Amino acid sequence: MSLVRFLARPMLASSFVLAGMDKLKNADDTAAQLSPLLRRAAESLPFRANEKVLARVIGGTQVGAGVCLALGKSARLAATVLAVISALNGYVEWRSADISSKDGRDARRKQLLKNVSLTGGVLLASVDTAGKPSLAWRAEHLAADARKSTGKQLKKADKAVRKAVGA
Prior knowledge:
Layout: H1 3-25, H2 27-33, H3 35-44, H4 51-71, H5 75-96, H6 102-126, H7 135-166
Helix pairs in contact: 1-4, 2-4, 4-5, 5-6
């Protein structure tokens, strides 16, 4: 792992881990803030779900994915989860912000920019292969190598058959 990744992943993840811990500690406040969105999510689930429990699940997921990203364990998956959570969080904060005053509107704009920046950071981390080719790239090149190898083998077999028939 490069020095940049070694430093950048924990730096990026720290914000998510702390926000997730805050959501876990203040599940009532989180549930109240996320209430409209959580109510819709709870309605779409096939079982009865409590908004406070869903808020804790989101907070726990955020902590877990943040720790995984910081440690570089399943970093791409963790970053993808954090990107979804960050986008959701940005939407919820944008909708619930107080915009009755100029200071409130400025705070809302700053919060939105922070959320957009964090979402962009984890999106970049979600596609970072750490210098290793992705599974799609490896599969594509494996198939191309197999086609080349098979073609060479067919040419050799054809040559041997023609030689045997001609002899």
